[in-house]
Specification:
By secondary structure, the chain is an alpha+beta fold. Helices cover about 20% and strands about 25% of the residues. The chain has four helices and nine strands. It has helices at about 70-80, 80-90, 145-155, 165-175; strands spanning about 35-40, 45-55, 55-60, 100-105, 120-130, 135-140, 155, 160-165, 190-195.
């Protein structure tokens, strides 16, 4: 249930090396006419789902069979609670699942632990499902609302880079930039972009 969709790269990759083709070639020309985009920092970690349904909170990884670090599970149970969900979604029926999508990060998930000395969660998306989730989410929350949910639950949310053109974001990634989330200096993993709403 509720596995997160794959985030596609906008550019074509070489089939042998898996590196981006040079010069850069968009996978779909339509990407080039979308302007502006809104970008957030891509965090190097492990996919985590926090699922609120029938008054209970459960956790999953990228897939239903994924293993989650024991320290991260302990942190999740302490910080992502049914009471927190009720406060963040006061009018939402507990029979309609809400899923928080985030990235588990911290020492032991990344070898250097530059993001954090403890394992934690950073939120990047939220979906609200209907009574029968097989059809997929009823709606995805806007970035502004994801940040509001994160604040109400006391969770970090992926750092906002801002609105820019695809060319500007591509240049930023090519030049490199520092992570806004990391406690110790480290290059950012990259960016994740969405067309502006």
């Amino acid at each position: 249930m509720s596995e997160y969709h794959k985030i596609e790269t906008l550019y074509e990759r070489d089939e042998q090396t898996h590196r981006l083709k040079q010069p850069l070639v968009l996978k779909n020309r339509a990407y080039g006419i979308v302007n502006p985009w809104v970008f957030t920092e891509k965090i190097d970690g492990t996919n985590i789902r926090c699922i609120w349904h029938d008054g209970r909170v459960t956790f999953g990884g990228k897939t239903d069979n994924a293993q989650i670090h024991a320290d991260l599970v302990k942190w999740l149970y302490a910080h992502v609670t049914p009471e927190g969900f009720r406060a963040a979604f006061p009018s939402q029926s507990e029979q309609c699942p809400v899923v928080l999508y985030g990235e588990g990060y911290g020492a032991g998930i990344q070898k250097d632990g530059d993001y954090s000395p403890e394992k934690r969660l950073v939120l990047f998306d939220v979906a609200v499902y209907g009574d029968h989730d097989k059809a997929g989410p009823i709606w995805w929350l806007s970035d502004e609302n994801v940040r509001d949910v994160g604040a109400k639950l006391g969770l970090d949310v992926v750092p906002l880079i801002g609105e820019m053109t695809l060319a500007e974001a591509t240049e930023m990634v090519c030049v490199g930039f520092s992570s806004k989330l990391a406690m110790n200096p480290r290059p950012a993993e990259g960016v994740v972009g969405r067309p502006c709403e």
